[in-house]
Amino acid sequence: MTPSGIARRRFFVGAAGAGAALGLGGGGAAAQPARGAGGLPDYVAWKDAEDLIVHTPRTIEMKRSAFGSSGITPDTDLFVRNNLPPPDARILEDRDGWEVSVEGVRNPRRVALRELKAMGVESVAAVLQCSGNGRAFFDHKASGTQWRVGAAGNVMWSGVPLRAVAEAMGGVADGMRFITARGGEDIPQGIDPRTVMVERSVPIAAMDRALLAWELNDDPVPLAHGGPLRLVLPGFFGVNNVKYVKRLAFTAEESDAAIQRTGYRVRPVGQRGAPSQPSMWEMTVKSWVTQPLRETADGPVQILGVAFGGARPLRRVEVSTDGGSNWQEARLLGPDLGRYAWRPFALAAELSPGTHLVASRATDEEGNSQPEKMEPNERGYGHNGWRDHAVEITVR
Amino acid sequence: MTPSGIARRRFFVGAAGAGAALGLGGGGAAAQPARGAGGLPDYVAWKDAEDLIVHTPRTIEMKRSAFGSSGITPDTDLFVRNNLPPPDARILEDRDGWEVSVEGVRNPRRVALRELKAMGVESVAAVLQCSGNGRAFFDHKASGTQWRVGAAGNVMWSGVPLRAVAEAMGGVADGMRFITARGGEDIPQGIDPRTVMVERSVPIAAMDRALLAWELNDDPVPLAHGGPLRLVLPGFFGVNNVKYVKRLAFTAEESDAAIQRTGYRVRPVGQRGAPSQPSMWEMTVKSWVTQPLRETADGPVQILGVAFGGARPLRRVEVSTDGGSNWQEARLLGPDLGRYAWRPFALAAELSPGTHLVASRATDEEGNSQPEKMEPNERGYGHNGWRDHAVEITVR
């Protein structure tokens, strides 16, 4: 797959290159992106183009064939999804000087990143997954990027626990029920900011796991992933993990920004979004096979994949090589990185010549298993049905 | 430190640039390396030059200021140390076709990587550390690269357990006491191969943790780190983790290559290496502070660092801000990645104006603590004395 470890980050191959030839790309690369040197947009030119599918300059997917068995997704492979163009890269010139307005506490004020770094520090491994990951598998042609499995990664974040920040400011004010965070993107002139701004609210119970993070995988958070400061909510879908966070408020009500009121709402096909519908908050149990993907030789093979419980710990993963008639429990690999992380898995199998539908099915600690079919919803969110995620393998 | 996440991998700064200006570089960059585009040798041009110190083209150190708190060292920051020039990058063109000769088993034969992948798979997090890490801190000017703390990283490997390979070949032959691995480097003509070849032996008891690994941090192993296939021996110093492994033998005796017979032997200053001296096999307990390093503001600060037990699990880390008169136990951050991994740590402190000698001291599960002073040895191996690793901090 990768011809040379030396070459892989120096000579980029775009989505129309060797990767797409493997047939593993998404179906909806409608917009031809503005490309930086090497086939990737400038702000992500440091990523590994061979492992990525560029849908648009702001929606970049990791190839299914690029997931490994080591547990942590390198930031060079991590998917990108920005609702708005990212801010100018100059915001990273003085990371420690970045300020966030903390509101809804007894002593609200602006606080600089250098001060947050002195308040406390914790590290967490967590799955980062776009709400629309798996959208391409729905039959009803939901609008939006046609992500397959690669709008997800398992990464490590370091930052200050949000609880420590609230305590340093006198504690949360009375009556507050939500954590509301606003991103630092520029809002175009002449538009009602609420129609486009990235401001999301989640229940305040998430405070016990929330970080204001300045580090991704042991490096300062890159611009593409929300640097210099990102709200990290382990167990919650990606959109809630607000990038370049410049306002962090404890609020009595959810944000009235469109992205919260009507966006990221789960509803039947054909309906419009509304605040009464479930919001894309906590993730559910999910898994997918990563190797083999299309063909393999006759004989013994290790079937590999990744599995996670979403907001709950993972209990087990099963694998079927006959389209779901029979299941065997897979082995979990490597260290347990915690309840919000994913776990690589392996099942040793013998495949005879012919075609096999290879599926995986994960179960969380509460006994929730991936469904065989996922009910469609208007925007194609949260697909975790095991049959659509299965792969057809041809054995020679 | 890093002006821009976009820029950091695109516009390289060499060791003589901004990083060296921080005063964090090693003391012995005698040879001016042949540089690829951007200040790094070609075979590691994909690494993050801002986070590295190039001692020579084959000895590249991670800056102390580049270590984060997330636990896993990205391969873009991982140190490089090659005893011989790496093989031609074309060996990566057909990774699955790479063959290793397995000997000292009942049914010895050559086996291809694609076959190893079907035999089994496991993942492990492990500290990779050069035997000479910390050499610069010895007073006796030991010859060799003057590594400070950055010839070490904590990474994740995936590969087949060596035990599974041996079992697939009928089991280890009778009387074998060592695992002996030879690297795939080209040996110059006209030289007795035993004087330069990289062939190392370790006690066969290491088999229960050894992997033949094809993946580093979720990506195929880069050439600089031993791809396509590396012997990984968690808990052992780096040199034993043979790169581009082409011969894997269970042997009755240690290798007679110079690198085993006389190299990597611990002996008093002034003595020559000999097989009777201890070999640089298992690592010992160690830690170092990573933040702050030179200056910090008056008031609260988080003192950060990394700690590991070597071949034994880590029990605790203590931090002193007064040069060792008083110690406080630090908090360990993030998930426990297993007994061979390191763990980031943090201690919340208040530092008054003036200078402070900030030290860390780790203790393993058997109660072994880092010594205050490390006894010198001829080649400057295995330095884990806490006083030399301490940092003097000026508080404004």
TrEMBL record, chains A, B:
Residues 94-257 form the Oxidoreductase molybdopterin-binding domain. Gene3D superfamilies: 2.60.40.650, Oxidoreductase, molybdopterin-binding domain. It comes from the Bacteria. Residues 279-393 form the Moybdenum cofactor oxidoreductase dimerisation domain. GO terms for molecular function: heme binding; molybdenum ion binding; molybdopterin cofactor binding; sulfite oxidase activity. Its cofactor is Mo-molybdopterin. Residues 372-387 have a biased composition (Basic and acidic residues). This is Sulfite oxidase. Keywords: Metal-binding, Molybdenum, Oxidoreductase. Residues 359-387 are annotated as: Disordered. One of its GO terms (biological process) is sulfur compound metabolic process. It holds the Pfam family Mo-co_dimer. The lineage of its organism: Bacteria, Pseudomonadati, Pseudomonadota, Alphaproteobacteria, Acetobacterales. InterPro entries: Ig_E-set, MoCF_OxRdtse_dimer, Mopterin_OxRdtase_euk, OxRdtase_Mopterin-bd_dom, OxRdtase_Mopterin-bd_sf, TAT_signal.
